[in-house]
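chain below, 423 aa
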Amino acid sequence: MAFQETAHPEGGFGGFGGFGGFGGFGGFGGFGGFGGFGGFGGAPSFDAPLVVNSLITNHDGIAGTWQTVTSAIQENCPEYDAFLGRLSPEVRQSIYALELASRLGFTFKFEGACSGTAQVWHLNVTSNPDGTDKPLAAYATLARMSRPTMAIFKKQLDLVANYADLRQDRAAEIIAQLSTPVEFLRSIAFIAPARTPYTIELLATAQGLANLVEMRIKYALACKRPIEFSPQIQPMILTPTHGTLPSGHSTEAFMLARVLWLLLRDAGVVPYGDTIWGKMFMRQASRIAVNRTVAGVHFPVDSEAGAILGLTLGAYFAGRCKGSNEIRGWAFHGDQYPDSRDFDWTQLYDPATHMQKEPGTWADETTTSLTGTTIQSKPLAWLWNRAKQEWLDLREPCANGGSGSGTPEVGGDDDAPSENDGS
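prediction:
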């Protein structure tokens, strides 16, 4: 969500700024609140002029006469995911970016002079049975989206106008949410640069994928913003130049909420078996999405489309990390959307089952089975597992009979998930 023109990231999430040259992945610059992470807590610059010049004279003073290297030196293992741990975060992000982007496809199917469907595909790559290096490739539907009619947008404008009454109360939130959703998700889950650096890296990677996809769909559908319908909307923040549907804030917030919820459940640690955690993540994502309507820059239908896309990408991203032999794609039929409907995330997703719901004729799911293969990426699997380790319980030595092994244990005193809502 750092693509927002009015955003002024302060930290830039350090090395992740390197994604600025990779389209949507420039969004990593928005991890402002985690600026200290990128700078490694204010560590000194090892290439400062004083250090460089000192190393030159230091070399002349101690290196001595050159000695030919004769000892055996082993080569690094090629394509070895464990080597990722020796790379800097910004270098790893470049690897993750290609892993994700190289398996995506995009098409637009025209349906009349001014309408059509934007389609995002997963490219499934398998080895060629003829033994050649050229792989076989087939596309599976990941997301389809068509835009609402002008009549639907006009009716939705009534909701946008009414939401303006909340601007005074939500102003601080709206400004703070110009940056990454992680700033607000970390108030629910214990996310901190020193404690969960790999979780932050995982969420940054997920947000980059969402930004990449949403921006391409926005460009294709080219839906007008509320300010282009009426001079009385008067948004309280600068309206972004890209199209209104799907909402990027909704897409990214719901994607990160689902990824984080799946990560915590995968860790299997009490209390994350309780569905209240998943509900809180979704409530937070919804709050971020709705605030964009309060600000006057989005329609509720934008948030609905964004939530569907974000939830879909969240499951897909987790599949790229954990492994999956199917693609659950979702379609949003904007021209069938109820024109007076307000945004409601509870009609789209069930945190208890981790499943998306079909809210009506305007959204439906398609499943593509990938027989004998998986969409897992080894580099992304490495990142997921590193992030997962940050959420495991660390037991005191006495809990294991004084063994002092220091080995994290999955689960707690009762591994059975609780269905207590907690609200």
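The radius of gyration is 24 Å. DSSP finds eleven helices and seven strands in the chain.
thats it, cya
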